[in-house]
Amino acid sequence: MSLHISTQFEGNYLAALDFKQDEPTELEIAEVIPTGTTKSADGRVIDRPVLKFKGTDKGIVLCKTNARGIARKLGPDMSAWIGHKVPFFQARITAFGEADTPAIRVWGVPMPKKGGRRR
After folding, report:
1. Which of 3, 34, 49, 67 has the fewest CB atoms within 10 Å around its CB?
2. 63 in a structural domain
3. Is residue 115 part of a domain?
4. Tens-place pLDDT, residues 87-110
């Protein structure tokens, strides 16, 4: 029986630990939900776009770093991203004052110099 951490906690979104480090996982974008139209489990409006993917009910709340990374690959029109596969991986970055924080990143896009580096 698998006891992967993602199977032990309910949620609507993929987490960094759902991805392998330095090995991309391609996900096909099925839907781009605009900023301010989705609510979190506690009822707060999510102030970022959300990506939904073919083959899974879980999505990703899109940070600016990943939005720019996808735009570098597919262009800035987010509605045109639907149907395209994007490679994601788990990076280790410095975030929220903590070093070595797991984060979802787009494979093949240079990491921001300010926040962290690929490992």
Report:
1. 3
2. yes
3. no
4. 999 999 888 888 889 999 999 876
